[in-house]
Structures are given as C-alpha cells and as structure tokens.
Amino acid sequence: MAGRMTAPADPLFPPFPLEDWRRHEPAVSGAVQRVFASGSYILGGEVSAFEAEFAAFLNVRHVVGLASGTDAIEIMLRALDIGPGSQVVVPSFAPSAVAAGVMRSGAALVLADVTPGTFTLCPESLEAVLRAQAGRGVKAVLAVHLFGHPVDWQSLQIVADRHGVLLLEDCAQSHGALWQGRMTGSLGRAAAFSFYPTKNLGAIGDAGAVATNDDEFAARLRSIRQYGWRSRHCSDAAGVNSRLDEIQAAILRVKLRTLAQNVAERRKVAATYDERLSASSGVRPPCVRPGCGHAYHQYVVRCAARERVLGRLQAAGVPAAVHYPVPLHLQPAFSGGETLPESEKAAGEVLSLPLHPWLGEEAVHTACQIIIGDDHAAR
Ligand SMILES: Cc1ncc(COP(=O)(O)O)c(C=O)c1O
C-alpha cells in the first residue's frame, strides 16, 4: 500500500515544529531512547532534571512539570485555593485556552481590555474592572505575556496591590522574554507555562509547568498533579493526574539548551521585518516597550485591510495567520456582555507573519514584498 501523501513543505517557509525536529533530531532521539531504556516512565529522573534546569534558566526556586499549559493555569489556581466562589481577571484578547484553564479551576472569569501597542492587559482597564467587581470575590489577575511581549508588570502590580488581589503570569508564549532584565516566569508568586509544540520551547506533544519561588506552594502543586498525594497512596485533598511525561521532559531538556540562542535568532528575524516594513503604509509593526525583551513567539502587525492582505499572502504561499480573530468576551462560552473596544479592534486588525529562528531573509523579504505591493495596489 502506498504511504500517506503529505504536501511537501515549502522550502522558503518550513513549519517551525518540523524544522525544530530537524535541528534537534539526533539529540532528541538519543534522549527518547534513554527514557525507553531506563524503565522509569512516570516522574523519573528526566522530569526532575528538566524542572531543575528550567528553574535555573528562569532564575526561580521551583518548576513543577505538568501535562499541559491549560492544566498549569487550573492547577496554579487550585493550589492557591482559587476555585468556586472566586473570580479571576484575564485579558479578553487572548487564546481561549486561558479562559478554559481559569474556568476549569471553578473560578468565574472576568474580562478586561488590552493596551493597543502591545496587546497586553491594560492597567487602566484592570483598575476599572476591579472597581466594578469590588466585593464580588476577585482573587487574582492572570496577565498574559501575549506573543512574547512582557506585560506592563509594574503598573499592573500597583493596581493589583491596591485592590488586594494576586498578580499571576501566563508565560505560554513568553519563554525567554525579559522584563527589566528579569525572565518572565519569575516576576510574581507563580507563572504558568505551556510547552505545546509550536511554543518557543516546545515538546513533541502536550506539556506544561508552573514556576514559583515559594517552597510550600511548589509542594502543593506537586501534590495536586498526582491525585492529591501527600505521600504515596495517601491524598491530602482530591487532586488530578497531570504529570509531565518523562519522554517530553527528556525532549524539553535537549531543546532548553538552545532556547536562549533561538530567542536571539527570533529577535534578528523580527528586526529584519521591522526594517523592511518601515516602508509599508498598510501595516504597523509590533512595538516593544522600553525595558522589555520581546521573545517574538509571534510577529504580529496591525493591518486595517487585514483580510485582503492575508488573502494575498496566503495565495502566494506565505503562511500568515490571525491570532486571535474573536476576543473572549465575544465567544459564546465566555461572554459576559462586556464591551472591550481595544480587544475588538485588535481582533479585527492583527496579522501574524511567519517567524521562527531559522526563517531566512529571503522568506522575510517575500512576505514584505507582498505587503508593500498591496500598499501600492491599494493607492
Ligand atoms: C497564552 C496561552 N495560555 C495558555 C495556553 C494553553 O496551553 P496548552 O495548549 O499547553 O494547554 C496557551 C496555548 O495555546 C497559550 O497560548
């Protein structure tokens, strides 16, 4: 029987996970073989080694490996006793996984707007939302470092402190991003990570983690991820099964070695885009707030004629995409009837151009030519 046919990858725009695999193949294969041969497949030496190595990368005391980023949000909240009867504020312009993770904890979702420049949680909107929700059980704010740009941590922290709520991080898109010289993931009490295959640090399957400096909290996370066990076969509280897989941990250890270099390469590709797109009147390149090191999980421009430009790019084989077309407050599962104008505007204008550490100048040039060509055609 003939093998399954797959479309050949465009040599100019190789998909990130495949290219990532190609670069790491011998080391990843060796690591996976090592796990097979160890006979230890659940919470063994690879998970604890990855946890220690990623904690060192972030400069935090603990990383607790989990089964996904959505689980990381849920378990982080549960370990903080945030659940039914509590509320958690998240930005509306965010992937639906953020809302799903919060709702799985049992807490109610409260949505706030974003800042137009960076697409991250807007401190003024947060202030307004926390005032409106006063006395209704808001316990935490989950700030998402969207597309790899750090949130305005200091301003958000001032607002959160004023209202006595915890400020937590969602770092699913910000591995390697810096805020005032500190790694995202080390800024607050706890941070949730995803290692979904397309992330800056991606597994070959699902994986996630929570990072924290709090010893007792880390112990709670470890207990919840494994049936609530205090010791083997004795549960303190009802937990879940959300263990980071030993094979995924071994793969993540390999990829972690080149994460810093890969983020540096992402920044170079972004700089090439910035330079080329400065000639475009139709798109606005992403901005970087002073003191921030963008990790460029995505390179997202604003484009008023988004659908037309997206169509032209896709017709020419450029894998451009839209992250995210519908803000959370307009999705049936999460809507509370809010009006959040910046989130709605962002959803209508954002356009993600292909970016990964090994994207060549020719690919960037091709995408930019199409965009600039569209500017001229539209005049
Ligand atoms: C910002 C953000 N938070 C949370 C998640 C959830 O991660 P996972 O897909 O590993 O469950 C994602 C992944 O899509 C994400 O981008």
Note the main attributes of this structure:
379 residues; alpha/beta; Aspartate Aminotransferase, domain 2; Aspartate Aminotransferase, domain 1; 2 domains; seven-stranded mixed β-sheet; three-stranded antiparallel β-sheet; 12 helices; 41% helix; globular; disordered N terminus; binds pyridoxal-5'-phosphate
Describe the structure in your own words.
There is one protein chain. This protein is of the alpha/beta class. The protein folds into two domains: 241 residues, 3-Layer(aba) Sandwich (Aspartate Aminotransferase, domain 2); 120 residues, Aspartate Aminotransferase, domain 1 (Alpha-Beta Complex), CATH 3.90.1150.10. The chain contains twelve helices and 15 strands. The protein has a seven-stranded mixed sheet, sandwiched between helices. It has a three-stranded antiparallel sheet with strand order 7-6-13, with no helix packed on it. Strand 6 and strand 7 form a beta hairpin. Helix 2 runs parallel beside helix 8. The longest helix is centred in the N-terminal third of the chain and has 23 residues. The protein is globular and about 70 Å long. The N terminus is likely disordered. Pyridoxal-5'-phosphate binds next to helix 3 and helix 4.
Number of helical segments with 4 or more residues: 12
What spatial form do the alpha-carbon principal axes imply?
Answer: globular
Radius of gyration: 21 Å
Structural class: alpha/beta
Predict the CATH topology of the largest domain. Aspartate Aminotransferase, domain 2
User: Quick one: CATH superfamily of the largest domain?
Assistant: Type I PLP-dependent aspartate aminotransferase-like (Major domain)
Give the names of the bound compounds.
pyridoxal-5'-phosphate
Mean pLDDT: 95
If classified by CATH, what would the architecture of the largest domain be? 3-Layer(aba) Sandwich
- Main sheet: which strands, in order across? 1-9-8-5-4-2-3
**CATH hierarchy class name of the largest domain:** Alpha Beta
Count of spatially separate domains: 2
Share in helix: 40-55%
> What distance separates the N and C termini?
54 Å
The arrangement of helices and strands along the chain is: HHEHEHEHEHEEEEEHEEHHEEEHHEH
Estimated share of beta-strand residues: 15-25%
